[in-house]
Amino acid sequence: MVLSKILNHGVRGRKSDRMAVKENLRPGGRSARVQASVHKAARDLLGEMNRAEVTIPLIAGKAGVTPSTIYRRWGDLQELLADVAVERLRPDMQPIDAGSGKADLEAWAEQYAEEMSSGPGREMIRDVLAAQTGANACKCCEYTRQQIVVIADRAKARGATFPDVDLVMDQVVAPIMYRILFGDVPDAARVRDLVSRVMSMAG
Amino acid sequence: MVLSKILNHGVRGRKSDRMAVKENLRPGGRSARVQASVHKAARDLLGEMNRAEVTIPLIAGKAGVTPSTIYRRWGDLQELLADVAVERLRPDMQPIDAGSGKADLEAWAEQYAEEMSSGPGREMIRDVLAAQTGANACKCCEYTRQQIVVIADRAKARGATFPDVDLVMDQVVAPIMYRILFGDVPDAARVRDLVSRVMSMAG
DNA sequence: TTCGTAAAAGCAAATTATTTGCATTAATGG
DNA sequence: CCATTAATGCAAATAATTTGCTTTTACGAA
């Protein structure tokens, strides 16, 4: 799957006018280079220091770009970090094949819960949700849904039944995310319960 | 139920040291007055202008307080807005009695979904989740859970069965919140489905 | 290819927000 | 009522953000 990593963001004058995310604005050389450089600088800084200490001038300095470029393209730190986070939240592989639909879903959900409830995971989710633009959050949700679709298709290809994808989102993904966001840590046993409950509703 | 509205926040020097929310720091007259005045100013400004245009100096001006007071007590705008939001998210009444556990839950869940998916609702949730302190999010979750507990207790007092509160959180509250956060709007029909599904698991 | 156009980036001055040290006020506990 | 100290006020110093203007450079048409 070819994934365009280039997202350009058109930005204008006053604060209320901003954040109109227009993609493919000028994918040519320099724009893309600046985008990549800024993203990398942001990622690196997030790894080196507290999220609260990262500022736009810092990122700009590390990226070799003037701060005003970042302000004009992304608007503010929150939008930039959301943009960086959503890219990092993109799954980098297909869900592993564990032999059956239930085993696939169980393995995927356990890994998902673990990754998302980790320190960096929580921060990325927070960054995505804190942005004014709901588009990033949507994208995240889509990534997750896509993973479930792959598992569901695989199960059906095996001739097995598998619950509707929306049902899995409601009954497995949503409870895991809710607990992570609202302060709890979903343990593996609970995740397995969620999975076996939804699997018993298949077909 | 007596609810202390006074939350004091102890704050110190550098950014990474901040946001240590200590309650009951000095609930005496002036502190409480400043707290109330700042909260009211923030609420009013949020009603008058875009969230992105609200700043600490603005709030301070309207509250008749110096900005540094706000910086020292809350740390930054995000924490202050989270504090304001969590107060507004506190339920102001018991869930209405609709005659049965299922009807109670249905009525409550529909209202919850509607309020939370509204513009102001979404903003409050975002503000709460965006704060570095997970404490606010916890509190919100607790408010919701408390409402479910009331409904459950009422059902049991009627001699009826009612699903476990955690199950309701997982199967009704979490899916509603997930959809709101990740870009969807949960319609009434879907909410009713969630409720009837969980009610069929009662006992 | 070259050229015209306009988007994106750089730069620097102006504005605004944030931090900080110190002085003052006023809760709290004896 | 007094001593103590948290909380606030004030103002100077620092840092972030905005903005007007210039320069660079992608992109498309000739």
CATH class of the largest domain in chain A: Mainly Alpha
Report the count of strand segments of chain A. Answer: 0
Shape of chain A: elongated
Number of helices of chain A: 9
CATH superfamily of the largest domain in chain A: Tetracycline Repressor, domain 2
Mean pLDDT score of chain A, rounded?
Answer: 88
Tally of domains of chain A? 2
Low-confidence stretches of chain A: 1-22
| Assembly context of the chains | homodimer
What is the structural class of chain A? mainly alpha
The rounded distance between the terminal residues' Cα atoms of chain A is 30 Å
Largest interface: A-B, 32 and 32 residues
Give me the strand/helix succession of chain A: HHHHHHHHH
- Could you please say which CATH topology of the largest domain in chain A applies here? Tetracycline Repressor, domain 2
Helix content of chain A: 55-70%
Largest sheet of chain A: none
